[in-house]
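Field guide to reading this record: the first block holds the primary sequence, the second block holds the structure written as discrete tokens, and the final block holds curator observations. Each block starts with its own label. This record concerns L-seryl-tRNA(Sec) selenium transferase, catalogued under organism Aquibacillus halophilus.

BLOCK 1 — SEQUENCE
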Amino acid sequence: MMQLLRELPPVHELQKSNRFTSLVEKLSIPDSQVTKIIQAEIDYLREELLAGNVPIEKPNKLTFTEYIWNNTEEKVLKFKQDRLIRVINGTGTVLHTNLGRARLSEEAITHVVSVASNYSNLEYKISEGKRGSRHDILEELLTEVTGAEAAMVVNNNAAAVYLVLRALAKDKEVIVSRGQLVEIGGSFRVSSIMSESDAELVEVGTTNKTHLYDYQNAISEKTAMILKVHTSNFKTIGFTETVATEELVELKRKNSHLIFYEDLGSGSLYDFRNEGIGEEPVVRGVIESGVDLVSFSGDKLLGGPQAGIIVGKKEYIEKLKSHQLARVLRVDKMTFAGLEKTLRSYLSSQDLVEQLPTVRDIIKTDQQIYEQANDFCVQLKKYSELYHLQVLADTSQVGGGTMPGVKLPTYIVTINHKNISTPELARILRTGTPAIVTRIKEDKIIIDFRTVTKKEMPELIESFISLSGMDD
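BLOCK 2 — STRUCTURE
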């Protein structure tokens, strides 16, 4: 074994190789990065040899060198690849958290590119030639689409909740129903966020039932706020009862020192209830009911970039804007650009469904989806000896912790390849260019065309055609 260890080439010897120079020059990668990868490969080989493992056949200095170079070149190429890439979403989940949630509209994308590639008036009043505030950029649009007195934007809705509690209820009591102490993605809990904000949580009611008198009995001199959390990522059924927003507004009016804050989570500006989809409240309706503050996400049902949007009474919004955390939680120019065009879509006379991909995909009819699924099968008909394709009725979900229990009628295509196993086919599609993410059920690849656009269809079809000659 000691002889094999002596056969390992030193780093400086590999640095003199033409392959080293080629990697550095052709891929425009720092020589220090290539050296780091080479050193890691040599260290790995040394550890394997010391453990009694020989990862290559007929080991000698030549084969060790080739092994190191092959692995180094592979890792350098991987290092140069983009980490954030485009994905074709074949899962049917519209707001797929793992795949980036809402897709931006074409108008929003164009505006983001324009703002990102140039200087902008992010904090500059052009009309007056002096410094401005980024809070002013979208406030007018947000108040217009929601009916609120004032508005501001932070980097996500969890940040919005934290800012509201910290700025307006620090060291004071906040009353919330036990049934609304939700956990959101990544094991973040509303109760934990409240604790971090130094607001004192006062739980009322039970998991399944909370009555108005539970809130009434909990109000004390220390109470600063009533918090209602919209349970947008789960649904409780059976022996349940919650207190309506309107009842809590009336309770707040009788206790004028209180702030009534409702965290909507998903936050919709489009009334999907008119399409027979879910029971999600519309932000404007909640504001009109008399709630003091409302917060919601930008990248869920709204259909924009990640952001936390806070709308409501001007006196409270102004306090939030002036709080030190407002700077910590602020968003950048690209978020403002994407959100601006998204909001303008709601104020446009043009068809909102055609402008916003999220709204379009959620209300996409099963007939439209069937036509896409059928077209996919027709295009691959000549490869029927390799692919077994079947169009079936199924259901999609909205996703993103939104509209729990809502099933959207859809059509899927189930796929089997004669020579490639289902897990391997899923892997090949997932690691291809473009990456195609699918579902697997009953040993079949499933593609739900609700989340596949017409523009993506040629690429999707070509990806399957390119696999026609592959064997297992």
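BLOCK 3 — OBSERVATIONS
The chain has 20 helices and 17 strands.
The chain has three domains: 2-80, 87-95+362-465, 106-353.
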